[in-house]
């Protein structure tokens, strides 16, 4: 919300004109309150879309011609909520504001050498639980009716409905101009869409040139059974450890023809792809996630060092290496590590449970690798991707472009990171400083060029035929692009409604330090599932959890060999809980990409994967975070966790029939 105090007065407007203007603005969901000029410096105030009762929010203040300016923010009842200096031509963020009851509207006042000015900020105010409704409604509708596009859009509209002050028509307009368009305009989101399009286009060329069928024929002697095909997919997912997006799209697109041939359901393929994406990337210290996670750990340690009254502990926290703390946290990442063990158990035992067992039974008994009537994220039927008759089936026409993508992404991460981190930086600092979006774009474009070059150089396809296959690959991803854009838009809804901040506040409280890791994991899991983003969850929780566990005494002895275990465990709990939502939330971009790469119905993927994720989460909390907090050795926690998962698969899971 932006309101300016330097808009000139408009004289001579009649009452009728004012009334018509108010009606027009109301239909658009805009406030009819015009900013009327006042004598004094110009003031601009940016406020939140809505305010939640007792949930912190921020204002951004700007002035252009105020010398020695100071600001005050007052609530409707006259209380001063904040005050401070206001630099000229600079933004000042006023954080930590809260209102309750009749706290709105807020009045922002500035006093400067040139005079004074004031603005009124009056966003809609709602109880905090309102912020949960858009994502929960979207998720519930998608799970119940399996119409993910309609469900996601309804959730977005519901958020716009609140932001527009309960105006349903204006809420519809906000769905487009406030959420969907900015999501597409975001540079990182656009990079993911272009990367997905280029990779799918590369697959289109590979398919038209016979490379896909060639790799199926080459792997056929090895992947002779559904178990072997799933193991190959699993190890490929672990091997592409440097980026979750690249992992998902490369593995899914490469192994889908193989698993289809061996009657492995698309739901199972999507589960394998999804479970070896974010869970792998977060536990490997050379990946595109490392720099981000280390920066958050550093901030949390700094805040805790500033707040603790113990000088020795403050010194240890300030001197600690964030990277060393990250390495120490890896053994406590129980959810992603146990999720990988769960995948291995499912493959080796060839047992499944719940909806996944029904999907696998359908595929193995001739009912099809996807559910009849399902809404596939990629159209693999009659897309123009089939190789013409007589085309040589050469496996390397598929392998070389895929290897090109992997190598170019790795080299791109290294060289781009080295320019930012410096020539003498370690490999993990180098990867952490790299821009992953640049690297994956370079890799996918290189793969396209190599695929087209191979097809035309061998005279398998003409340049025109290769480009037709390239375009057919992009067209096949249309539904996936729509759903991915809507998922991002719903994420922006939760951002503007402060959903994560509300959930965090609700779940905070006075706790025994031993319970902080498990409750932190649960909080991060709920927040990431409802918002569909792991990075935002980490960004919100790590700066809160680290000072909290330090204040509760969980960092006693930090810096020594035996001290600070609860602090490290709590940091791991934030990372692992955030991965839970990234792994299985229907509005997570990684979950959507897994459905796209596997050409699976998105909600079928979510429904079949969720039971496994919940079982792993329960084992991680019980044996991992609770057990180790009360003295259980880490290796014993893993033995118990894996044993629990094995018992579930043995006594609850059912054998999958052999292919018909």
Q: Overview of this structure, please?
A:
Helix 7 (226-239) runs antiparallel to helix 14 and helix 16 crosses helix 17 (427-433). This protein starts with a strand and ends in a 5-residue tail after the last strand. Among the domains are: 2-126, Macroglobulin (MG2) domain (Immunoglobulin-like, Sandwich); 128-185, no CATH class; 192-284 and 354-479, no CATH class. A hairpin with a 5-residue loop joins strand 5 and strand 6 (80-86). The chain has a 4-stranded antiparallel beta sheet, with no helix packed on it. The chain has a 4-stranded antiparallel beta sheet with strand order 6-5-8-9, with no helix packed on it. It has 27 helices and 12 strands. The radius of gyration is 27 Å and the shape is globular. It has helices at 15-28, 133-145, 148-163, 168-185, 187-208, 211-219, 226-239, 244-261, 266-275, 278-281, 290-307, 311-319, 322-329, 334-349, 354-364, 396-421, 427-433, 436-457, 463-475, 478-496, 499-507, 516-531, 534-551, 565-584, 589-598, 602-629, 634-651, and strands spanning 2-4, 43-46, 51-52, 57-63, 69-74, 80-86, 92-97, 106-112, 115-121, 125-126, 351-352, 654-655. Residues 1-38 have low confidence and may be disordered. With 660 residues, the chain is of the alpha+beta class.
What structural keywords apply?
660 residues; alpha+beta; Immunoglobulin-like; 4-stranded antiparallel sheet; disordered N terminus
Compact summary:
With 660 residues, the chain is α+β, with helices and mostly antiparallel strands.
């Amino acid at each position: 919300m932006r309101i300016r105090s330097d808009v000139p007065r408009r004289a001579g407007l009649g009452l009728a004109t004012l009334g018509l203007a108010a009606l027009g603005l109301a239909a658009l969901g805009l406030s009819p309150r015009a900013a009327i000029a006042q004598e004094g410096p110009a003031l601009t105030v940016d406020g939140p879309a809505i305010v939640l009762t007792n949930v912190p929010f921020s204002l951004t203040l700007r002035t252009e011609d105020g010398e020695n300016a100071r600001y005050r923010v007052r609530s409707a009842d006259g209380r001063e909520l904040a005050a401070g200096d206001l630099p000229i031509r600079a933004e000042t963020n006023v954080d930590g504001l809260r209102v309750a009851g009749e706290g709105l509207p807020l009045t922002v006042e500035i006093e400067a050498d040139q005079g004074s000015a004031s603005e009124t900020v009056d966003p809609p105010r709602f109880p905090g639980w309102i912020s949960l409704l858009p994502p929960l409604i979207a998720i519930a509708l998608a799970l119940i009716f399996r119409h993910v596009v309609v469900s996601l859009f309804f959730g977005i509209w519901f958020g716009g409905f609140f932001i527009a002050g309960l105006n349903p028509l204006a809420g519809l307009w906000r769905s487009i101009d406030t959420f969907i368009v900015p999501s597409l305009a975001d540079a990182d989101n656009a990079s993911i869409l272009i990367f997905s399009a280029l990779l799918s286009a590369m697959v289109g060329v590979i398919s038209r040139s016979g490379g896909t069928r060639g790799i199926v024929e080459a792997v056929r002697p090895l992947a002779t059974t559904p178990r072997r095909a799933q193991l190959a997919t699993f190890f490929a997912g672990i091997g592409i450890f440097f980026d979750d997006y690249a992992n998902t799209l490369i593995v899914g697109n490469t192994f889908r023809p193989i698993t289809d041939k061996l009657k492995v359901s698309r739901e199972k393929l999507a589960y394998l792809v999804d479970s070896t994406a974010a869970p792998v990337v977060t536990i490997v210290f050379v990946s595109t996630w490392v720099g981000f996670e280390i920066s958050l750990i550093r901030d949390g340690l700094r805040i805790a060092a500033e707040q603790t009254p113990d000088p020795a502990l403050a010194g240890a926290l300030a001197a600690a290496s964030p990277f060393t703390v990250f390495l120490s946290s890896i053994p406590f990442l129980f959810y992603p590590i146990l999720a990988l063990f769960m995948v291995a158990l499912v493959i080796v035992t060839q047992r499944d449970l719940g909806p996944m067992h029904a999907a696998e039974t359908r595929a193995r008994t001739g009912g099809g690798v996807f559910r009849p009537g399902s809404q596939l994220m990629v159209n693999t039927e009659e897309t123009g991707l089939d190789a013409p008759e007589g085309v040589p089936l050469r496996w390397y026409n598929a392998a070389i472009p895929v290897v090109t993508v992997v190598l170019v992404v790795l080299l791109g991460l290294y060289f781009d990171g080295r320019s930012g981190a410096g020539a003498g930086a370690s490999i993990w600092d180098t990867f952490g400083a790299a821009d992953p979006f640049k690297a994956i774009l370079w890799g996918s474009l290189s793969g396209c060029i190599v695929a087209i070059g191979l097809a035309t150089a061998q005279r398998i396809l003409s340049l025109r035929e290769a480009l037709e296959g390239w375009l057919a690959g992009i067209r096949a991803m249309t539904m996936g692009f729509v759903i991915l854009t809507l998922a991002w838009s719903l994420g922006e809804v939760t951002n503007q409604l402060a959903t994560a901040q509300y959930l965090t506040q609700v779940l905070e409280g006075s706790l025994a330090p031993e319970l902080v890791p498990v409750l932190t994991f649960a909080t991060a899991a709920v927040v990431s599932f409802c918002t569909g983003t792991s990075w935002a969850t980490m960004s919100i929780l790590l700066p809160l959890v680290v000072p909290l566990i330090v204040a509760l005494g969980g960092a006693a002895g930090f810096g020594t060999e035996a001290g600070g275990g609860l602090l490290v465990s709590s940091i791991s709990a934030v990372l692992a809980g955030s991965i839970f939502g990234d792994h299985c939330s229907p509005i997570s971009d990684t979950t959507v990409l897994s459905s796209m790469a596997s050409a699976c119905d998105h909600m079928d993927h979510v429904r079949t994967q969720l039971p496994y994720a919940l079982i792993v989460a329960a084992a991680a909390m019980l044996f991992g975070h609770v057990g180790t907090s009360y003295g259980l050795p880490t290796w014993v926690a893993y033995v118990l966790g894996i044993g629990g998962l094995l018992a579930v698969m043995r006594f609850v899971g059912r054998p999958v029939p052999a292919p018909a």
